[in-house]
Amino acid sequence: MPVTKVTDGDTIHVTYLGVDERVRLIGIDTPEVPWYGGKGECYGVEAGLYARSRLSAKTVRLSFDQAHRDRYGRLLAYVYLGGELFNLTLVRLGYATSDAVPPDTAMAPKFSAAEREARAAGRGLWSACPAAGG
Length: 134
Description:
Blueprint: E1 3-8, E2 11-16, E3 19-25, E4 27-29, H1 44-55, E5 61-63, E6 75-81, E7 84-85, H2 86-92, E8 97-99, H3 108-121, H4 125-128
Parallel strand pairs: 3-6
Antiparallel strand pairs: 1-2, 2-3, 4-8, 5-6, 6-7
Helix pairs in contact: 2-3
């Protein structure tokens, strides 16, 4: 399905069943961006720009876990760009932390392992953001 907008590092819009839907990438969390009047966090702009560069106007596949929507009405999904699990890429490269929120924890062990590896290697936010331990 086509990506119509990249909101930030962990939220995109796609055309799903003919409707524009917000999609929250599950299992991960990227720092907040200042683009919408909120307070930006360390490495939020970098994560948002990376997601935009990789996903804007691309076609992705969504895979769901247990819950299909969050309390804000967003679809909750693992986002695949070709064969690449983009959620995992964000954690591996240090743009996101793992964030297991039950009941959607099927990929939590993979995301936690990728976070440990990124932290140990000082990738992305792990070296750029003192509060993250960098």
